[in-house]
Backbone:
């Protein structure tokens, strides 16, 4: 089978067979197929796209390229969640304890942040002592004992995807729905969860800028999951402004804890609740009305907060973070209010620019090896649709470097757009599949 023929077939708009995809991807991982040939194939996919069957086959080839995490020996129904990434997205920190407190098993591999999006692992590591590098047996032990664990992704899971993504990144072929769906699902399916719920973000701070593209990505991933025999659901949620109020690692941990105490932002609680309900429904332990009641009770009875404390302690973190977050979590040296330059209403917030502002402060990475400062970040005080007066604080910047503060402040102010006309608040959830 010639790689040239595989590329030519795709270039001419015909689907590749599973055997052809296997020859191409496996050859690339082994080093037998050069970058320039895979680059040509990626560009052919970018313009001609893939069929549902091709997407499923590509996903299978990539997930079979490395280690699979068998969860079958763990107790209970195993659930997993994936977010396509956003600003202020700390849903995993709220969702995991809720789900584990309801008797489901939340065994999750998460990533670090890059660019304007934050990473769950970075957020958890803001808790002093918290360990995310766990050997497999310790990970399984914590899951069985606590009902949940979150660890860093292993390099052995879907190595073909990592190599292919690096090439997509330098060939301008990242934003093709079939390639995105296959990339995400190869990692999700390599971990043997019974249930997967996808949070597909849309808006200025998301990878998918339009609701239509987010819906198409959600449906592509749902199709792949179903073809591989998984119970799967998807939520399309808004990322035209940060989720919650806090952007930055220690700040987001604190906000997640407040949400588990029943005092968090309404949007963060609502999205966490909807995803948790989908998991409960797919697990078959309640109907829709019961699921909503169970999730609500888990938070407001304190069960989920107690589970979060168990989880933190099991992974080496300081359990005092629950009751004394101010004294336990790292704090920035400076705290500055950013004031509104006009009066009226917040018409728009470029969430990506807010994320970049936080990255400038040190809360995120521009390059993979950049150092994270867990103490810095931004608190968003005014969101879309809110009334503002001239000179009123619209945000707070937490910084350790005055030059970085000035640059972040300038970027943050550019992210806000104001209007004299009242603006409707955006929907939080556009679709639930």
Residues:
């Amino acid at each position: 089978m010639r790689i040239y023929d595989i590329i030519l077939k795709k270039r001419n708009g015909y689907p590749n067979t599973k055997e052809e995809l296997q020859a191409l991807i496996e050859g690339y991982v082994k080093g037998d197929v050069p970058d320039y040939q895979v680059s040509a194939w990626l560009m052919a996919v970018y313009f001609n796209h893939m069929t549902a069957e091709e997407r499923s086959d590509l996903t299978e080839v990539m997930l079979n390229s490395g280690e699979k995490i068998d969860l079958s020996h763990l107790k209970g129904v195993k659930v997993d969640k994936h977010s396509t990434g956003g600003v202020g997205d700390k849903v995993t920190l709220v969702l995991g304890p809720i789900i584990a407190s309801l008797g489901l098993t939340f065994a999750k591999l998460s990533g670090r942040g890059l660019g304007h999006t934050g990473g769950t692992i970075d957020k958890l590591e803001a808790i002093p002592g918290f360990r995310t590098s766990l050997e497999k047996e310790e990970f399984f032990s914590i899951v069985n004992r606590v009902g949940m664990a979150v660890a860093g992704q292993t390099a052995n899971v879907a190595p073909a995807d990592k190599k292919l993504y690096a090439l997509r990144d330098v060939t301008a072929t990242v934003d093709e729905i079939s390639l995105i769906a296959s990339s995400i699902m190869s990692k999700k399916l390599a971990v043997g969860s019974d249930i997967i719920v996808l949070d597909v973000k849309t808006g200025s701070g998301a990878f998918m800028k339009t609701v239509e593209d987010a819906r198409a990505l959600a449906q592509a991933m749902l199709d792949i999951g179903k073809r591989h025999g998984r119970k799967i659901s998807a939520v399309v949620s808004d990322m035209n402004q940060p989720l919650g109020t806090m952007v930055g690692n220690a700040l987001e941990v604190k906000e997640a804890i407040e949400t588990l105490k029943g005092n968090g932002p309404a949007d963060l609680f609502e999205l966490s609740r909807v995803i948790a309900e989908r998991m409960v429904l797919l697990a078959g332990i309640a109907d829709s009305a019961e699921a909503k009641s169970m999730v609500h009770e888990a938070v407001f009875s304190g069960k989920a907060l107690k589970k979060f404390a168990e989880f933190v302690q099991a992974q080496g973190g300081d359990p005092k973070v629950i009751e004394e977050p101010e004294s336990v979590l790292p704090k920035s040296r400076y705290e500055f209010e950013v004031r509104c330059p006009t009066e009226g209403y917040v018409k728009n917030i470029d969430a990506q620019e807010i994320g970049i502002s936080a990255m400038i402060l040190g809360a995120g990475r521009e390059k993979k090896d950049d150092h994270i400062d867990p103490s810095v970040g931004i608190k968003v005080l005014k969101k879309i649709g809110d009334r503002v007066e001239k000179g009123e604080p619209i945000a707070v910047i937490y910084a350790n470097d005055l030059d970085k503060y000035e640059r972040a402040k300038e970027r943050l102010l550019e992210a806000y757009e104001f209007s004299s006309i009242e603006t409707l608040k955006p929907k939080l959830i556009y679709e639930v599949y």
Remarks:
- Residues 280 and 362 are 37 Å apart (CA to CA).
- The chain has 17 helices and 13 strands.
- The domain at 331-419 is CATH 3.90.1170.30 (Aldehyde Oxidoreductase; domain 3).
- The two ends are 40 Å apart (CA to CA).
